[in-house]
Specification:
Largest sheet: 9 strands, mixed
CATH architecture of the largest domain: 3-Layer(aba) Sandwich
Shape: elongated
CATH topology of the largest domain: D-Maltodextrin-Binding Protein, domain 2
CATH superfamily of the largest domain: Periplasmic binding protein-like II
Number of strands: 11
Length: 315
């Protein structure tokens, strides 16, 4: 079986005509018919069905064509990547990552990418929206990973959903509200917001429309989870944070997750990139690796999705 046989089969599937396929592949129709017959003899089965209207793939041909499309696509991708390496050499891809994206997607995706693209330097930057979108527009970032802003990013930015990120409510160990199971029990609590108002770290997003927080209950605003992890253990306050951030750092910081029975919001991590031009080839391949990692995690199920390990809440 040769690569030209795969192109032949894909062309027949697309055109439904031996003559049109011969023209598309720049070969004579007798040569194409001979190649098709050789392939059928090699596989021991008919690959096409001839009809008065033309030809169509037989079941065996459909099976082979599905595999052929992947093979041809991968060969074209390999040629593209080799050509890029030969002419460009070094490159840098800059990615803004939210805390949850940094923990959930970046490590394995970047590791796999660098095995295939060892000459490309990946620059990861801690970002929260709307800062990440401004950095995308200015060209400082090639892409960003994080939650979708409440105000849509605009037509100049493309957003692609990747993975759901559960959240938890955290307090210091020994907090009077540490055993709270219902949002109603938190009505008088003091709160810390992480990120912008109306973002995933804003407690206003919790509960239903009947569950309100007095602005006076917001005692602090943080722009980073590193700051939150440093100050929350010393504060009589509650904070909303990604479950993976809590799992990785919460216990060491002296925090516990409230065992909530009420459902907590699920944030979806997106990939953001500019819509006014294509990504560079290395940036596109890194995005491919990130999407593949998200798909693996969706297929396997998120560890801790039914609650943090140990003290986590059901969500």
């Amino acid at each position: 079986m040769r690569l030209q046989h795969l192109h032949l089969l894909l062309s027949i599937a697309e055109t439904g005509s031996l003559r049109a396929s011969a023209d598309a592949l720049n070969v004579t129709q007798p040569a194409l018919t001979k190649a098709l017959k050789q392939l059928e003899q090699e596989l021991g089965t008919a690959l096409v069905v001839r009809t008065p209207a033309g030809v169509r793939l037989a079941p065996a041909g459909e099976i082979l064509a599905a595999r052929a499309a992947t093979v041809v696509r991968e060969i074209e991708r390999a040629r593209e990547e080799v050509s890029w390496h030969a002419t460009h050499g070094q490159a840098t891809v800059s990615v803004g990552v939210s805390p949850a994206a940094a923990l959930m997607l970046a490590p394995k995706a970047v590791a796999r990418f660098q095995v295939r693209w060892p000459k490309v330097r990946v620059r990861l930057m801690d970002t929260l929206y709307p800062t990440a979108l401004a950095q995308l527009r200015s060209g400082e970032l090639d892409m960003a990973l994080g939650p979708l802003p409440a105000a849509r990013p605009g037509r100049d930015i493309q957003a692609r959903a990747l993975l759901d990120s559960p959240q938890v409510l955290a307090v210091y160990a020994g907090h009077p509200l540490a055993r709270s199971r219902r949002l109603d029990e938190l009505r008088g609590a003091r709160w810390v917001i992480t990120g912008p108002r109306k973002g995933p770290g804003d407690p206003a997003a919790l509960g239903t429309s009947s569950w309100k927080i007095d602005p006076a209950q917001i005692c602090m605003e943080c722009n980073s989870f590193s700051t939150l992890l440093a100050v929350l253990p010393q504060m009589d306050a509650v904070a909303l944070m990604p479950q993976r951030v809590f799992e990785a750092h919460g216990a060491r910081a002296g925090l516990v997750a409230l065992p909530m029975r009420d459902p907590l919001p699920m944030t979806t991590i997106h990939a953001f990139f500019r819509a006014d031009g294509p990504l560079s080839l290395p940036a596109q391949r890194l995005l491919d690796a990130i999407e593949a990692q998200a798909q693996r995690m969706r297929g396997a199920g998120l560890p801790g999705r039914d609650g943090c390990r140990g003290a986590g809440p059901p969500v």
